[in-house]
Prior knowledge:
Layout: E1 2-3, E2 6-7, E3 13-16, E4 19-22, H1 28-44, H2 46-49, H3 56-72, H4 82-100, E5 102-104, E6 111-113, H5 116-122, H6 128-139
Antiparallel strand pairs: 1-2, 3-4, 5-6
Amino acid sequence: MKSDNSSFERVEEFKYLETTFMNQNFIQEEIKSRFKSGNACYHSVQNLLSSSVLSKNIKIKIHRTIISPVVLYGCETWSLTLREECRVLVFENRMLRRIFGTKKYEIAGEWRKLHNEELNGLYSSPNIVWVIKSRRMRLRGGGGSI
């Protein structure tokens, strides 16, 4: 491709600041990569997040300041389909379940995983899809603060 007597090589994909941009704008691989990095980050602080000494608020702050930024790095460039929206919500809920743990049934005394609605009630921050859309709007100059 030429522009103002300069030549540019056309490539199918390139990496810039640890984000892979693809010619076809497929973001599935980039999201997988972010999830992999987020999981590695989670495992590096897993002892803190599973500690009974730390409060849920401290664990949420760890999640917001250490894990979320790793997962959301470069998300301003993501064009999410409904399928990707579901994938990132599932990832976020899995992380939150690890942080909040299980809940005990009062009557039966059995333990169970928290439902999505319960997670939303415990985690007062906007969900990850809202954050991604907000950052995209901010990148385009449309406001949308977090």
